[in-house]
Amino acid sequence: MDLMDWVVILAIALTAIAFFCSRSGRKGSLIDRARHAHGTRLLVQAALALWLALLMLVRSFVMPRGATFGLALNPRTVLAVAFALVVMGGIWLFRASRLLKPRRIFSAF
User: Fold this and answer.
1) Were 53 and a residue from 1, 37, 85, 92 both cysteine, which residue would form a disulfide, CB within 3.0 to 4.6 Å?
2) 30 Rama class: left (phi>0) / alpha (psi -120 to 50) / beta
3) Residues 39-65: pLDDT tens digits?
4) What separation in angstroms does the CA of 77 have from each of 31, 49, 83, 97?
5) What's this model's pTM, rounded to 2 decimal places?
C-alpha cells in the first residue's frame, strides 16, 4: 500500500471519531464536558498509536525495501516498538471508553 492510502485510512478513522464523539444537542455540566473532551482526546491518541504500529509493521515486514521512514532497524526493535504502541493504544482506548460513558448518579463504591 502506498503511504497516501495510509493517510486516507487515518483521516477516515479520525473523521469517524469526530462524528461519533460530537455532542451537539446534549448539555451537561462543566465536569461532564471536560470528561468527554478528555475521552475524545484519548480515543484520538489510541487511533494514532494503532495506526502508527500497523504502518511500521507493514512498511518493515511486508515491504522490506520500503524501510520505515528511511531507517534500517533491527526487526526485533520494530516489533518491540509496534508492541509498545499497541499496548499504549489499548490502554488509551480502555480509559477513553470509561470516560465517554455517562456518569452514574448514585454509585456504590
Assistant:
1) 85
2) alpha
3) 999 999 999 999 999 988 888 877 766
4) 41, 16, 10, 30
5) 0.80
| Lookup result for grid cell 475524545 | 40
Could you read off the pLDDT of 81-100 as tens digits, one per residue?
999 999 999 999 999 999 88
Cβ of 75: how many Cβ atoms within 10 Å? 10
Cα-based distances in Å from 103 to 8, 29, 46, 63, 91: 35, 11, 22, 46, 20
| Cβ atoms within 10 Å, residue 40 | 19
Q: Domain ranges in the chain?
A: 3-100
Residues in the chain: 109
